[in-house]
Specification:
This protein has 23 helices and eleven strands. With 589 residues, it is of the alpha/beta class. The chain has a seven-stranded mixed beta sheet, with helices on both faces. The protein is elongated.
């Protein structure tokens, strides 16, 4: 490859490439990632207004399990809030004691309930009989500002508590700022650090429709990941967090890789499973980038065009970046039999940018994946050109790997060009197969397509439930099936295994052909009269069931079909790590 000096200088100066997301774009991505991670998990909040106020007040400065237990004890002991208001103070303190600060809490609680009692009487309500109790249900008739003003006027209720109550008990579009929200937003740089949070400022940058669920998910995230001692290596938000990027880059000693044209993460995920640290990934498509983030926590993903990315752009999100390898799976449409096969397609030369980035990062290894069709594209071959570019500063070899040799129920062949540092190095050999389609003593048997599709996923077309609950309580996501008309179902019913147009090709029961997302739809199920779901396609590609695909349903088939099967990538990643270990041992002798 030859790159003009002017073009190279522009890349190195960082003048193109990375567009900084604005706060609205960032919050939209954060909301999506937290929702797929925590699913707005129940925090134990209640619908009754007064009960919710008490619940929130009890939660202050107390662990979740403790305040939930104390709230339950309180309700068992006192059937009505009126009973709490009139209870003997020592008795009430005894009920609240497990939560700590019982004297203070008992005083606050009785002051609050006393104020509600006075307001009830002022409005002509006199709860006294056995069936009567204090209420604030009349607040439902008020507007947001009026409700907030009333709640804040109650003893012990501030803006945070008021907005929590409005969100949970009223389902109003408010955004409450607690310790977790302030910590996460501060680390992400969304809000400048302040002594006290300005609730209106936080609320103004969060869209009304997501305020409640984002608040819920931020609490979950703050409790499990973004704590005072943050677990940044397990954080799905690290792409947007300078604090997390710095910690991950400095604290993880594993060999680092950069993942270009990262897609949904098949290649990078396989290398992570093999023991590599993917220090940073680059992917231009917003939905594929989100999928990568959701399933590969701790790896920052830059949304950018690889042709415009520079080494310094990558080092901004991975301080001190010194990768051992650059991985890449450039788009294959220009080479693929399913594409236009235009020799002049600029995408056919994207390998040049892979080499450029690898050289600028001084990476020892380059791993470049693509389809065998690149050997000859309407009379023009690209394999020799790719090898020549890779051989400029390294020693390169091309390997053709079959997915079924690595436990994937798919007859998918792909080229892997592997280039290693040093003209004197021997070329990197291919990883040994881990599986075989026929029984062999030394290898595991590749599972059949039928075996991976049997079970919970055997549902008809038009099943709208996206998540199926497994016996262990885990969720099997991306399980919805496409709704077909009766005409299409009848058409599919007549298609034999291995036959049919690309849009409705029926899969065989043993091994699938290479998955193709024709017209954004997936192939036909081997025995059911519908196209396969995204989850079924993911199983055929060797993705774990925990891998969730983000974005609209129409975009997900392409993410799955274009991915490198993770088991293939993992085998290659392990092979390269073992080779690296041998080289290091020899160098240290």
């Amino acid at each position: 490859m030859k790159q003009s000096g002017r073009e190279f200088d522009e890349h190195e100066s960082g003048t193109g490439g990375v567009r900084r997301l604005d706060s609205a774009e960032t919050i939209a991505r954060i909301d999506e990632l937290l929702e797929v991670s925590y699913r707005s998990g129940d925090l134990g909040n209640v619908d009754d207004i007064l009960s919710e106020i008490v619940y929130v007040l009890l939660s202050l400065n107390t662990r979740e399990t403790v305040y939930q237990s104390v709230f339950a004890r309180l309700r068992r002991k006192y059937p009505r809030w009126l009973d709490v208001a009139t209870a003997a103070l020592p008795e009430l303190e005894g009920v609240l004691r497990p939560g700590g600060l019982q004297s203070q809490r008992a005083g606050y609680l009785q002051s609050l309930l006393g104020a509600v009692l006075r307001d009830n009487r002022k409005r002509g309500m006199s709860p006294a009989g056995d069936g009567d109790d204090l209420t604030l249900e009349y607040l439902h008739e008020m507007g947001d500002d009026e409700v907030e003003a009333f709640l804040v006027s109650l003893p012990g209720v501030g803006k945070k508590t008021a907005r929590c109550v409005m969100a949970y008990a009223f389902n109003r579009h408010t955004f409450a700022v607690d310790t977790h929200v302030a910590r996460v937003f501060g680390r992400l740089g969304l809000i400048p650090p302040r002594q006290k949070p300005e609730h209106d400022l936080y609320q103004s940058i969060v869209p009304p429709r997501v305020r409640k669920r984002l608040h819920i998910n931020l609490i979950h995230h703050g409790r499990t990941i973004c704590r005072s001692r943050a677990r940044c290596d397990t954080c799905v938000l690290v792409s947007f967090c300078p604090v997390g990027q710095h910690r991950v880059a400095l604290e993880d000693p594993r060999p680092a890789a950069v993942d270009l044209f990262a897609g949904a993460g098949g290649l990078g995920h396989g290398f992570r499973q093999a023991g590599w640290r993917v220090a940073v990934a680059v992917e231009a498509d917003r939905n594929a980038a989100q999928t990568y983030r959701a399933n590969n926590p701790g790896t920052p993903v830059v949304e950018a065009d690889v042709t415009e990315i520079a080494a310094e752009d990558l080092r901004k999100v991975s301080p001190g970046l010194d990768p051992a390898a650059v991985l890449a799976g450039p788009p294959c449409q220009g080479y693929s039999a399913a594409g236009a096969r235009n020799p002049s397609d600029p995408q056919n030369r994207l390998y040049e940018d892979v080499v450029r980035v690898a050289d600028s990062l001084d990476a020892d290894l380059i791993v470049l994946e693509n389809v065998p069709g690149l050997r000859r594209v309407n009379g023009v071959g690209f394999s020799a050109d790719i090898l020549a570019a890779l051989n400029h500063h390294r020693t390169a070899e091309r390997h053709e790997l079959l997915a079924s040799d690595f436990g994937v129920p798919q007859a998918r062949r792909r080229f892997f060009f592997v280039a290693s540092r040093g003209t004197g190095d021997a070329p990197v050999d291919a990883p040994s197969p881990t599986h075989s389609v026929v029984a062999e003593d030394r290898l595991a048997t590749t599972p059949t397509l039928e075996s991976v599709l049997r079970g919970l996923l055997e549902v008809p077309s038009g099943t709208v439930e996206d998540a199926v609950v497994l016996e262990d309580g885990a969720l099997l996501t991306n399980s919805a099936t496409m709704r077909h008309s009766q005409r299409v179902i009848d058409k599919i019913a007549g298609i034999e295994p291995g036959k049919g147009p690309i849009s409705y090709r029926r899969l065989e029961r043993d091994l699938a052909r290479t998955l193709v997302a024709g017209h954004r739809a997936l192939p036909v199920h081997p025995w059911l009269n519908r196209t396969i779901s995204v989850r079924e396609a993911a199983r055929i590609q060797g993705f774990p069931d925990s891998y969730v695909f983000c974005g609209p349903r129409s975009n997900q088939p392409l993410q799955v079909a274009n991915a490198v099967p993770p088991p293939v990538a993992e085998a290659l990643g392990r092979h390269l790590l073992a080779r690296r270990a041998v080289q290091n041992a020899v160098a240290n002798e």
